[in-house]
Specification:
With about 180 residues, this protein is of the alpha+beta class. It is built from three helices and six strands, in the order αββαββββα. It has one domain: Thiol Ester Dehydrase, Chain A, CATH 3.10.129.10. It starts with 7 loop residues before the first helix and ends in a 27-residue tail after the last helix.
Length: about 180
Amino acid sequence: MNINSTNRNALYARICVREPYFALQNLHEIAPGETTATIPVELPATYELGPITAAEAARHTAILGSCAVASVAPDDRRRYYLATHCDIAWLVTTPACSSDSFIGYATGGFRDSRNAYAHTTLIATTGRPVARIDVDYTSFTEEAFGKIFARLRRPDLLPGPYAENPTRLPCYYTE
């Protein structure tokens, strides 16, 4: 299945991540449990070595991995895939390139009905692997998530105040 802007509804029916956090482009399901996408660089890696921050690499690959997992879910119900653990292994010690995007590749599946995993690779547009990122998830159906987290719901904050990704806003620290 090719999941892109023309049939994004098919993807949204299976996962609970939305824009602006969902920023993957050209998402494709290669086979059940296997996905690839273009991963944009949205933040400058000012204080980190390389062209993408660890946080941004983890965010995008966790979402890509959840798409791989969703493609092998036991049914078509919408699920939340909450990342519970992430291991990043940088494969380069110097910037692989200066790029505004990468290619992400993910395989994933379920360990049991509530626990899932994904193995992802972040690849420079030159074809050079930059990082391997493994993510563990706890999976909740939309109904179960609503019951478990109902007390934390903040309807006064919806819809969000940002038209684009709020992580792009500058962060100022004071002492």
